[in-house]
Amino acid sequence: STRTRPCRSCVRGDTQRACTAGARHPGQVPGGRQEKQAHPRPKWDNKLQYLLSCIGFAVGLGNIWRFPYLCQTYGGGAFLIPYLIALVFEGIPLFYVELAIGQRLRRGSIGVWTAISPYLGGVGLGCVTVSFLVSLYYNTVLTWVLWYFLNSFQSPLPWSSCPLDVNRTGRFEAECQASSTVSYFWYRQTLNITADISDSGSIQGRLLACLAASWAVVYLCVIRGIESTGKAIYFTALFPYLVLTIFLIRGLTLPGAVEGLIYLFTPDILQNPRVWLDAATQIFFSLSLAFGGHIAFASYNPPRNNCEKDAVTIALVNSMTSLYASIAVFSVLGFKAGELSTEHGLQTMPTNHLLFPEGHEVECPEVHVHPQPKCDLVSAGGGDVSGTGLAFIIFTEAILHMPGAPGWAVLFFGMLFTLGLSSMFGNMESIITPLLDMGLTHRSIPKEVLTGEWTPEGKQAQWPSRPAEWPPRRLPSMPFAAGGLAHKG
Q1: Which of 148, 197, 308, 372 yields a CA-CA distance of 20 to 30 A from 474?
Q2: Which family does the similarity line name (predicted)?
Q3: 117: domain CATH number?
């Protein structure tokens, strides 16, 4: 008998075309008998869900607080040149490789690298391990953001003034008056840091509650794999762009915004080799390369999907988002620096009058000028704008100078939370997908149970409780002890 040819539509993964008449489908041998089929792999509901998931995983908190800092450090023009070069010759090719191997082999990071070569299985295992560790501290940042978000529904904002001392005698906390209101709220009322890292302090109950809430939100979003994250990603990936646009429009209408943008894009020399290293590093951080999340996302695509076009599109969207966020951030920081400079100028205004306690005003022939400290956008804006210092100190202080500060705070920290949540989707998929592919558990176990077991907090509950195992068991809650973030003053 003649052998029938395989169905081309099924082999290509094309679900839009009808099957070839009389063709043999995958899993069917000549004669009509069916081969033993593996469990069908889930697939995205549509292409938009896949693109938004990859963009949400790539566009994270680093686009908001690390890229603007690098532009400010080296000058926008001087940094963008090596950044674009690294994007073309480093970022897009590696990103294309991850999407291609995930889509072609249709497995997670461990299965993909093992299929390429058994000696490369450790690369996939390293991706899972790194994603597990990163998800611990990334969700810690989400916990801080959630705490600030919940405290933003107040007027005035809790970091707008110093609290009274413990005796309630009308005096303010001396520690707050010696620093600033935003620094006091961050270091004392939020983290309650200790003087030295060797002092672990005690667990902060309010942050522990926010930690549990953050993990609960992550679990509910990834409970059904891409079936649930594909629905949640519409909001978590698009909401930050809405907020950035609102901040950009508002920031450009504020006084001092132009000065902030001029400072951002004033070019510096390219001779510093550090700028090339930071540009290449930013590409890895920004595109979330080598974590395995993009491999997992691409494994749910049809085999004939145009992943080359996807790689270029996602990489360009990610880079343009970084630049877009930098403009929005520095327009607001320029306004903040102008407001602080005005206040400082009024306090140090030259005068030729002396006012005595009795109320007698005496004119002096000489003009008395108070010492004028150095005043530029960096010093007036609070120093280098990067990391948690930008989100929880510098930008929160800038919001205080804006009309309707509580509303802007809700938008800002809501944006940060959704940005981090989208990145957590990729981290969780890079952990769960390879483990599911390895068949460590029976397929009859509900996916909700598997997700709960393999999230970092759920996995923590499965670890032994012997004294020798105590340090890793406590790892997820360590940042919420008073010594979790030490600060030496």
Answers
A1: 148
A2: Belongs to the sodium:neurotransmitter symporter (SNF) (TC 2.A.22) family.
A3: 1.10.4160
